[in-house]
Amino acid sequence: MTKNTSTPRAPARRLSWNDPATRALVYQALILSLVGFAVWYLVSNTLHNLAARNISTGFGFLRQEAGFAIGESVVAYTPADTYGRAIWVGLLNTLRISVIGIIAATLFGTLLGIARLSRNWLLSRVASAYIEVMRNIPLLLQLFFWYAIITESTPGPREALNPLPGVFLSNRGLKLPSLQGDALDWITAGLGMAIIGILLLAHWGRKRQDATGKIFPLVRVGVLLLFALPAAGWLLSGGALTVELPELKGFNFTGGMSLSPEFSALLAGLVMYTSAFVAEVVRSGIQSVNQGQWEAAGALGLSRARMLRLVILPQALRVIVPPMTSQYLNLTKNSSLAVAIGYPDIVSVVNTTLNQTGQAIEGILIIMAAYLTVSLSISIFMNWYNKRIALVER
């Protein structure tokens, strides 16, 4: 007698309103239809109104000559360049202030968060007062405050403060010496190779420590690479390298490197404001670690600083990283307030562009696309890092 091993076929699904899956499909189709109709209506109505007013559309204006100057830029720019080049300069200025602000706010906020948990009564109270004050004053007011301090309380260029040789502080900004010469590209390449080498050595050192228990001296080797590789690049280039000092000519300084009052005020405001929120994130992360971890580290004879660095903070990172992502995104988006104090970020540059061309919709779309791209990039990186440090269940 043979045994029937064939799998019975599932009964055919009948379309019925009593079937939850059928109702779900109908509801989703209706919602998608409504959204599609709303988008079509808005786009067609906008295009009709623009055509009725003889307003041109499209992004062809990006190839036209801009005709306006930008106070500071990371790359070369002149008024004869195109609007596309001007917007690129504004985007680079936004990225510049965001990257420097994120690094500075992370370092300062971490120190503040640790200080708030300090056993020193005065230090913890000062940190707490700073955090509460900065968190409850609007960022825009802080930007106005720092800009007024920098521009009103510092002297003019002729009476500029000179705390160090080649360093001048005035209401035109901070002037610093700069490196000039053909060897600068080689030195920059050597510095980049040193950073990549340190990251690779850190990854290899962790694997080596897991396998053998031996700790690789990453700090000493990293410092050596940071000095040796740029020096090697300078020697291999054979080019000249000179130090250009700022020099007062007429009513302002020429030469050297300059940090404008707008950049300095924006950086100070963003760092001071965001670091207060970062400090609370760090504090909550440290307090989430079980007290037994402190006691176990103390039983091993570790100092409090080494306990924090080797035992507590690595575990607290799993709690710190997710909310820290929100603070990084907030700092990047808050940089758009730069237009209030005259820093030429992407919002300021696009505003000037749309005032000259009348391409308001295209300009707003460019700003939205720029911030969306930057924010998603930060989120993707932080999510990757969060998965990397997450506990893996066996």
What does this structure look like?
By secondary structure, the chain is of the alpha+beta class. Among the domains are: 83-148 and 259-389, MetI-like (MetI-like fold, Orthogonal Bundle); 187-242, no CATH class. 64% of the residues lie in helices and 7% in strands. The protein has 11 helices and 8 strands. It has helices spanning 20-52, 83-116, 121-135, 139-152, 184-212, 218-237, 261-287, 291-299, 304-334, 346-357, 360-389, and strands at 161-164, 167-170, 173-176, 178-180, 242-244, 247-249, 252-254, 257-259. The strands form 3 sheets. Strands 1-2-3-8 form a 4-stranded antiparallel beta sheet. β1 (161-164) and β2 form a beta hairpin. α10 packs antiparallel against α11. It is globular. The protein starts with 19 loop residues before the first helix and ends in a 5-residue tail after the last helix. The model has no long low-confidence stretch (mean pLDDT 84).
Provide a compact summary of the structure.
It is a multi-pass membrane protein. This protein is an alpha+beta fold.
**Backbone structural class:** alpha+beta
In total, the number of strands is 8
Which CATH architecture of the domain at 83-148 and 259-389 is right? Answer: Orthogonal Bundle
Binned, the helix content reads 55-70%
Q: What is the fold-level CATH name, i.e. the topology of the domain at 83-148 and 259-389?
A: MetI-like fold
Q: How many individual helices? A: 11
Task: Please report the first level of CATH classification, the CATH class of the domain at 83-148 and 259-389.
Answer: Mainly Alpha
Q: What is the percentage of strand-forming residues?
A: 5-15%
Radius of gyration: 28 Å
> Numbering strands along the chain, what is their spatial order in the largest sheet?
1-2-3-8
Subcellular location: Cell inner membrane; Cell membrane
GO molecular function: transmembrane transporter activity
GO cellular component, one term: ATP-binding cassette (ABC) transporter complex
Domain ABC transmembrane type-1: 91-382
